[in-house]
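Shipment paperwork, digital attachment
Item: protein structure file
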Amino acid sequence: MISDTSCNLDSLDVYVPSPENPWNVTRINHLYRRIGFGASKAEVLAALNQNPSALVDTLIDNAIALNTTPPPLWGFWNRDDFEAAEMANEDNDTGFYRREGKNQMMNDLIQNQVRERLTLFWSNHFVTEDDTYRSPAYQSQYYNLLQMHAMGNFRDFVYDIGISNAMLVYLNGDENVRNRPNENYARELYELFTLGVDNGYTEDDIQETAKALTGYVETNGIPWGDILFDASEFSNDSKTIFGQTGNWNYDDVVNNLFQQRERQVATFICTKLYAYFVSPTCSEAIVAQMAQTFIDNNFEIAPVLRQLFKSQHFFNDEAIGSIIKSPCDLLLCFYNELGFSLGTINVPDYMRGATQMLGQEVLDPIDVEGWQGDEDWISPDYLIGRWESARFIINRAREANTQQFRDFLIGLPIGTAADGNLATTLSGPDVEIVVRAIVNYFFPRGIEDPVIFNEILGVFKEIFPPTYYEIGGSPTWNLGFTEVSEQFIALLDYIVDIPEFQLK
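Attachment content:
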């Protein structure tokens, strides 16, 4: 939603830490939860001593430098190849390979963070549903395109995605022939992928564009093979699109779109980027500046990201905790921030199944408009599952190694670099300081309500008699106690139910 009355009045000027606006655990976790899927404790500690802008540049540079994930052996198989594999092993049906592709994406989301955050974003923009086109090879090729263009040039992205096998089948481009034009892709190209609903195009533009996109039907008679251009199925009629007349073809459609409607394209895409990375309520002025950066850089995505993630606007208090976590956010961030071993659990497979159960099956959004997110993620149908999925991570980590819970608290940052961290600056840290550090670490804005904080504190303290926490008590509680692990487990088990835990 675009608004010119946003409470976040900061600009896109570079954020410079100050005593009033410090670079602290809250802002570091805010950055990592938005630009990626959470930071490890080691990354947070390192970031406390880094320049925020330099850190953003490093994260984006590293993401751009990543190679795409190598395709699997079956990444270019046709249907005959998959059927032969299934005959050799009945367990290896096409559903098996499609799950393998999703597990690979989950593994990449956990490992590579920034590039994969954009990959997930674009998968919900240039939507395809793998249960529609069915081919595991098409799924793999589509995923490769998402990775390749995730932080590259948006015009090139639009061009390549439109003639990808997955998209051609999903939106019936492979049925779009000169004597029977199919308008599905032409409509979504403008409505969902580049301009927005009813923004700068007419029904005539859609119909004429469909004619210009005809001809991509040739597969040499091999199901799930490459869909190629067949000139005999291309409409050679004159077409008028955006007021320009000619015998336009696919290349012309993309070129004319970005030449005739560059402002609309830039504004639409930057609005989506803003809503995804900053707040569902968009600032019209900030989006306009982002759009200008997009245009000035020939529709390169990375400069827009750098501008946004370095800005005062992004680090404004109003932006922090303003987005409801998607299932991927909820579970991947929690897993990465804890950094715990889950024993023999196949983590990518668990994450794929759990996020699917919670309404976010990667590479298979709910429809062509994608996941709408926000309050949809916390409907009554999903909320209990969100709590229990987070608890699954806690419980499996406990079974794998209880000691890792206490180890996490040793050296946990309190706030800013000047504040220090637990058990290194304080010989016997006050229990309230410890719990406050935990709360500030896992909640985007901490917990300001004293009643809720005292309830959390009570859960953490419950295992020991009150005398352990008294000054001069004997023995005096400290982080060296073995039972600290059970205290932390009880606290985590409690806080996953608190509404603020659902925010990032």
